[in-house]
Hints:
single chain, binds calcium ion, Arc Repressor Mutant, subunit A, 5-stranded parallel sheet, 2 domains, globular, Rossmann fold, alpha/beta, 5-stranded antiparallel sheet
Amino acid sequence: MRILIVEDESSMARSLASGLAGEGYTVDVAVDGLEGLARAIAEPYDAIILDLMLPKLNGYAVTAALRDRGTRVPVLMLTAKQGEFDQTEALDTGADDFLSKPFSYPVLLARLRALIRRGGSPQGAVLGHGDIRLDTREHRCWRDGEEVALTAREFALLAYLLHRCGEPVSKGELLQHVWDSVDERDANVVEVYIGYLRRKLDRPGEPSRIETVRSAGYRLSGPTLATIASISHG
Ligand code: CA
């Protein structure tokens, strides 16, 4: 079971992440709403624990954006206090449950389990970018209708670049999101994997679709990302 925690308070995020990891969940953490949304779209999570008050994009906006894309992943929203929180608005934007801080950890676990039971199997989507198709649930990729075999790391790297397409993405960011590392000494692994992706996705004699942006990192050029289909198997 894979859980995404979107929480900007690092102590809260850390304690939740270690608690849930101890329960056997695989946990990712995003520290603001935009990052949370990008991850939630790119990966097939079984549930999302989403703080309401977040930098860049608040919890309401993240949930609304997910639901607009047809993503049905269960969302448990965390709220700081009764006053700032509108239960009706939370439900309107598509949150499945909510819990106000401070909460008891056993209650959070029970709510999370209930949500996952109701949510069924992981959700995903087929994303399109030019001639590339990416199935985020089955982790499969096609170019021009022909399947391209990608390793899990290559897939995660491509999915992240796709979600940021048109923007330069630094090696540090890719390390953090795709390798869960903040050690810049690992940056050459990013170059190596960009090379693998280029070999698998580019056409001989044509410029690479993954541009190198001098002193900034990489940019996936081309059209904007489109959701071709939402997948929900229950
Ligand atoms: Ca917060």
